[in-house]
């Protein structure tokens, strides 16, 4: 984890899957709203570009080039957060594995396993690690329901994301009185690289810009 600006008394937002799409848009919007952003993603170059954009607007970020599917790395991340910040104000989980669309009988075994690892098992592990950090600051965990469960050819993605959302809903029900707050948002279709893989040739002009959708989601979160 590389350290850039000291967070001082700023609120801390952890964005898993922050390098592109909605994750990057949320990171920029949160930085503009006064949060120190801890940006987690595998792609170093994209994280550095995100950091440049945040700095231009006077924001502050710390980059964590890590794979959410690697449990030891996430353990290290949680320990570093606890030591440096003591808690988390917002965790927004945007990391996904988008397996190629396929009829159910032809889903590749490796794609199926990676979908379950990244979209389901990694989230369970992150909940275990981040819940005490969120509770320390009366924080909020934010998930995004775009599972498309039951739609044709979305077997791997739909099943693994539906399981993630089911887990998040259970956690939400369990923490109503104790915290942390758990929110499940339903983002509008956006021109992301994941969507482009699912719907090649789609007219991006008909989709909501990631920046405006990020602002809407955060506005709803504040209500």
Summarize the structure in words:
- One of its GO terms (cellular component) is membrane.
- It comes from Paracoccus onubensis.
- GO terms for molecular function: oxidoreductase activity.
- The model is unreliable at 4-8 (pLDDT under 50).
- It is globular, with a radius of gyration of 17 Å.
- The longest helix is centred in the middle third of the chain and has 28 residues, at 109-136.
- The protein has helices at 21-32, 44-56, 71-84, 109-136, 155-174, 193-198, 210-222; strands spanning 11-16, 35-41, 60-65, 90-93, 140-144, 181-185.
- It has one domain (11-222): Rossmann fold (3-Layer(aba) Sandwich), CATH 3.40.50.720.
- It starts with 10 loop residues before the first strand and ends with a helix.
- α4 (109-136) links the parallel β4 and β5.
- The protein is an alpha/beta fold.
- Strands 3-2-1-4-5-6 form a six-stranded parallel β-sheet, sandwiched between helices.
- The protein is built from seven helices and six strands; from the N terminus they run βαβαβαβαβαβαα.
- α1 (21-32) crosses α7, α3 runs parallel beside α4 and α4 (109-136) packs parallel to α5.
- The protein is 48% helix and 15% strand.
